[in-house]
Amino acid sequence: MNNDVNTSATGSTGPAPEPMGADIPSTVPTHWYNLNADFPEPVPPALHPGTREPLGPQDLAPLFPMALILQEVSTERYVEIPEAVREIYALWRPSPLVRALRLERALGTKARIYYKYEGVSPAGSHKPNTAVAQAYYNAAEGITRLTTETGAGQWGASLALACSLMGMTCEVWQVRASYDAKPYRRFQMETYGSVCHSSPSELTDAGRAMLAADPDTTGSLGMAISEAVEAAAKDEQAHYALGSVLNHVMLHQSVIGQEVLVQLAEAGERQADVAFGCAGGGSNLAGLTFPLIGRNLREGTTTRVVACEPAACPSITQGEYRYDHGDVAGLTPLLKMHTLGKNFVPPPLHAGGLRYHGMAPMVSHAVELGLMSGQAVGQDEAFAAGVIFARAEGIIPAPESTHAVAGAVEYARSAESDGQVVLIGLSGNGVLDLPAYAAYV
Ligand SMILES: Cc1ncc(COP(=O)(O)O)c(C=O)c1O
């Protein structure tokens, strides 16, 4: 594809995005929910990588717009969603909550299984929930270019979509293992007008150093983040956007769980007894479950939350809980999180979006407080569950999402689940991941 053409097509420097005046259904959430208002103890602060002192807003200003920096440290329970963002959400929100009757029958379970399906977004996953919000706040501050990293490409495609809707340019560093094995989301990014590079690349100091150290590296999200952060820091018109891990990303994703609370009540259910979400950096899991955990804390419901992570990259179940960098080069702030160490390079999994060495500080904190637990799922087990789900319900889950399905399938087959409401976070569809399924079936 000719990136020059695509880039100039979206390279406008328009004013802060105004709402188009569309009718927005009342079922589209009006506010994001912030679990920081309800945590019994505050999340340990992010630290400056040089001084190891808590970060101030100005430390983040070169990379993020002030509105997002303020959301990062906010303890307000509800944050109003701008009208222009709600209008875009209304293109696919509320996303469906579906009773998985055929899956129940296939498993022979007495549990009532529901799945919340984020694959209906234009990009095919939950990631646009935050991509649109982040692009909006950056555009409102006059930023014209966003840089980011991506694993399997779901986040890159989502930010490319959001930038195209907001009239911005977008440059994505994609982990080499996925760049080589999964070209279709790159084509998606390019169709939306973005540029996508294989990471590590020769375009940044960080990338060149990593290639010098290991020319055959398969790459990692930690490496790609270093490149995208460096590129943004060197361009005054550019900011960096992160698709997971940070508090403001967890905030934006909360539309998922808030809708679930309404939709479960409409279905006549008092609560989800157990909720399963897949966990890479933690954002779809947080989006699905933080509103439910908040309700547990405020109203005494008893939803149990299980974070399903890949056995090959098990930050929650095997990592240490300590301060660590979000990237390999050590450019990002120090975050208190479950981590396998910033230099950990996971094997090239099909679920590329789960190949991250750390876990969101808010998710890590929730684990430490006993508000959720972790479960490691092997790749074959995950695909087996994905195939059962596809054959029963029709939707082919994203390889990442199959981890949540596997956790739920195992539980629903146990006697413990009798009569319970089991909730699955189906974070995306796998239609662009069919080669991975082909390798399995
Ligand atoms: C469909 C899908 N689910 C889950 C994830 C994992 O990310 P997170 O843990 O932030 O939701 C990704 C990441 O790219 C993804 O594409």
UniProtKB/TrEMBL annotation:
Its cofactor is pyridoxal 5'-phosphate. Residues 1-27 are annotated as: Disordered. Keywords: Amino-acid biosynthesis, Aromatic amino acid biosynthesis, Lyase, Pyridoxal phosphate, Tryptophan biosynthesis. It comes from the Bacteria. Residues 1-13 have a biased composition (Polar residues). PROSITE patterns: TRP_SYNTHASE_BETA (PS00168). Tetramer of two alpha and two beta chains. It catalyses: (1S,2R)-1-C-(indol-3-yl)glycerol 3-phosphate + L-serine = D-glyceraldehyde 3-phosphate + L-tryptophan + H2O. This is tryptophan synthase. Belongs to the TrpB family. It comes from Kineosphaera limosa NBRC 100340. Residues 92-428 form the Tryptophan synthase beta chain-like PALP domain. The beta subunit is responsible for the synthesis of L-tryptophan from indole and L-serine. GO terms for cellular component: cytoplasm. Pathway: Amino-acid biosynthesis; L-tryptophan biosynthesis; L-tryptophan from chorismate: step 5/5. Pfam families: PALP. It is an enzyme of class 4 (lyase). GO terms for molecular function: L-serine hydro-lyase (adding indole, L-tryptophan-forming) activity; pyridoxal phosphate binding; tryptophan synthase activity. Its EC number is 4.2.1.20.
